[in-house]
């Protein structure tokens, strides 16, 4: 008998799945779902993050959060997305929703200037080029 590292229950499940759907049973279902958002929605989301405030959409806070952006997408387009999807979209467009850490006043001036040149600030987010 070959050692598979799987439990008996898992092996039986795989066999039943193979008997039901055949070769399609070997599809790997790990790794999350495919992107749900259309490119137009993503473009609008990036535009909203960079140029608008939550107040413009009748939200009660002044800064965007991942949950608030997911709620915006759901209200505007009727598509439910999780915070992780919004986070990955922001990261793929070089947008960080974290605040940068302040540097001490005795830090290297050239390093500070290089940081300032690479950061383009938007109204509520910092975009790194």
UniProtKB/TrEMBL annotation:
Pfam families, per database record: HTH_33 (PF13592)
Name of the protein this chain belongs to: Winged helix-turn helix domain-containing protein
Top-rank lineage group of the source organism: Bacteria
Segments forming domain Winged helix-turn helix: 63-118
